[in-house]
Amino acid sequence: MNAEERFGSSSSTNGHALELERDESSGATPPEQQPEIRIGKAPVPAEIGGRATTIELFTMSLGEEAIYLAPLKTWSQLDIFKWRVQGKLPGTPLGLEIAADHVKIADQIVAINDSDGCQKLERAFNEWLALERQALETAKQKAQATAAPNPSPSAKEHPFRFHVELDKAGQRHIQCLDGKETVASVAVTVPGLNSLINQGLMRKPGAWKIGALRDWVELDGEVFHLKDGGDDDARLEQALNERYVPKADPGAAPDVLVFANPASPSGFDIEFPAVVSGLADNRKRHLDPQAMELLSDPRQSRVLRKGILVKLAPPNLVFKQQLSDGTERPLDQVPENTLLVTGADGQGKTIDLSQPVSHLGLGPTELTAIFNHPAINRRARLREQSLGE
After folding, report:
1. Cα gap 71→51, rounded to integer Å
2. Cβ neighbours, 10 Å, residue 165
C-alpha cells in the first residue's frame, strides 16, 4: 500500500490545526532556551491494509501554533497559519521534502524512526532560518551602502500657481503650473473653469459667471474685463493665485478612501479623484495594479506628491521616489516616512513606507491612513505645512 493510501484520508493532517504538546521525551530544552522552530512527534490515526492503526509524524511549532509535517503535502498546504505570509518565516524551507518515512531539508535527511530525529530536524530547520535571515540582512545592508543619495521630497513643494495668457490665436487661457510643469491649460470658458474645479485644480468660487463673448469674468462679485490692452489679465491672475489655489483645509475629508471588498483580488476597493478620458472620475475601483498605476500618473491624478509612485506587488504596496533621470528607488528610511496606525482592534502598528507594506493583516482604516500620509499624499503635505506656519 502506498503512502497516499496510508495518509491521504487522515483528516488530522489535512488542513487542520494541530493540538498537541511537544514530545518531552525527545530531549526538549528548557523554555527559555528553546529555539524558534521546534520539532516534535505526535501519533496520528491511519488505515493500513484496511485496519485502523496509529503512526507517528514529525510536528513543527512556532510559538503556540503547530502543524503536522505530513507526507505528500505542499508547503502552502502545510502552512495553515500563513507563517510565511505574516513574515514569521522568510520563505519556504530550503529543499523541504516529506516522505512517509523521512523528512529532508537542505542536504539533511532525518528518518521518522530515528531516536534523535527531533533534535536533528530541529537543528536543521533553525540553521536554515538563521542563514536565510542573515542573507536578507546582508542584502539589505549592501543595497543601502551602494545606493546613491536620494533625498525625500522636499519639505516645501514647488509652488502651485495660475498664469493667464493669450495664445497665438488670441484665445485667453488659464494655465495651472506646478513648479516648471504645466499641469493643465484651459480656455476662459464655462467648460474650462468647470474642468479645473472638477479636477481639484481650482477652489470653487461661491459664485461665478463668464460673459457670452468671453470678454469678462466675475468671481465672487469681482468683475475682470478681459480686453486686449487692459490690465485685468494681471488682476485675474493675482485673484486666482490669492483666493482660488487649491488648499488642504485641516478639517477636509481625505481624498483617498479604502473599503473592504471580498470580491476584489486584494480584498479592498479604493476611491480617489482622477481624470479618465478627459472626464473627472472619483468612483470606487478594485485596489489592484491598474488602480495604482492610475493613482501614480500625475497627468490623470494629482493625489500623490510630485515624483511619488505606488505599485502593488501582491500582497505588498511599494512606495517609490522617481528621480529626474526617470529611475526609481525606495523612500528614505527616516521618521518622516513612518506612521502609526490604529486598527479596528484598537492595536497600534508602526508602518515604514520605505519598505514594502503588506496589506495582509491591515484593514480599510489602516490603508486609508497610509494613502493619506504626508510622505506621499499632496494635500496631506500641504495641510501639514499650513498647520506649521
Report:
1. 20
2. 12
Strand-by-strand arrangement of the 172-178 sheet: 160-166, 172-178, 181-187
Tell me if residue 368 falls in helix, strand or coil: helix
Contact 188, 172 (CB under 8 A): yes
Burial of 11 (0-12, 13-18, 19+ CB in 10 A): exposed
Query: Which residues on neighbouring strands pair with residue 281, listed in sequence order?
Result: 274
Task: Output the pTM of the full model.
Answer: 0.48
- The kind and range of the H/E element at 67 are strand 65-68
Closest CA to 348 of 338, 337, 335: 338
What is the tens place of the pLDDT at every residue in 186-199? 888 898 888 888 77
**Backbone CA torsion sign across 325, 326, 328, 332:** positive
What's the mean pLDDT in 306-312? 92
Cell numbers representing residue 297 in the block: 500618473
DSSP string, 320-339: EEE-TTS-EEEPP-SGGGEE
Nearest CA-CA partner of 268 in 350, 358, 355, 367: 367
- How large a percentage of the chain has pLDDT more than 70? 81
Partners of residue 178 on adjacent β-strands: 160, 181
Task: Please compute the mean of the pLDDT values over residues 370-385 and round it to a whole number.
Answer: 82
User: Which residue did the predictor score with more confidence, 255 or 312?
Assistant: 312
Give the whole-angstrom CA distance, residue 118 versus residue 334. 44
The per-residue pLDDT of the chain, averaged, comes to 81
- Tens digit of pLDDT for each residue in 153-204? 444 445 678 998 887 777 888 988 877 777 778 888 898 888 888 777 788 8
Residue the block writes with cell 521630497: 153
75: left (phi over 0), alpha (psi -120 to 50) or beta: alpha
Distance separating alpha carbons of residues 355 and 169, to the nearest angstrom: 51
Classify each residue of 333-361 as buried b or exposed e, where b means 16 or more C-beta atoms within 10 Å of its C-beta.
eeeebbbebeeeeeeeeebbbbbebebee
Residue reference for cell 505606488: 310
H-type helices in the chain, by residue range?
A: 3-7, 75-78, 117-146, 190-198, 232-243, 289-296, 364-371, 378-388
Q: Name 26's Cβ contacts closer than 8 Å, sequence gap at least 6.
A: 39, 40, 41, 117, 118, 119
Cα distance between residue 131 and residue 304, in whole Å = 39
276 forms beta bridges with: 279
Distance, CA of 186 to CA of 193 (rounded, Å): 7
- The grid coordinates listed for 217 are 469674468
